[in-house]
Please model this.
Amino acid sequence: MKRMYGEFDMPDYTGGGGPGGPGVKAKRSAGKPGVPDVHLDPGPDPVRTAHETILGVGKSRTTRQNFRSNQSSESGRTDSCESKIEIVTPYWASNSAGKIRAIVNTQHFEQAIHQEVCTKTGTKRCTGDCGCEQKYKWHRLLAYDPDNDCKGIFMDWFLFPSCCVCRCNPN
Model:
């Protein structure tokens, strides 16, 4: 059986036995416990690098998506309403029942939300009997009740901004 670091010898229960005789498990290599057998440079820690980027420490990370200020890359068209795209890792939010919950977001477990927030209520393209409105989307996140530790960690539903649309009154 291959392990992440080095080899792991499986026990031989067929009667042939390992170095200790029949039915005895063969020992691992004689290295220190917890120390990998292969000593390769693992590279930068992706979690630490992401946190340093968020906090503005170190070199900046290249963006994975090109949002190009509300412009569709396929058609060249722009949105009628101005908005700001954010990727957030919330720590507190109100659930579907209106209760405040703590969202599980730690250094080792992140739950990110991609949200688009309206920056203006109207634009020159969205005027008159029309206006920019914020739309919302439900997200299921791992959370806990800060007032009741006995509940433990559970999944709950939370509402976050999803997009900004130009809505008009019916004629």
In short: The first helix runs from residue 46 to 55.
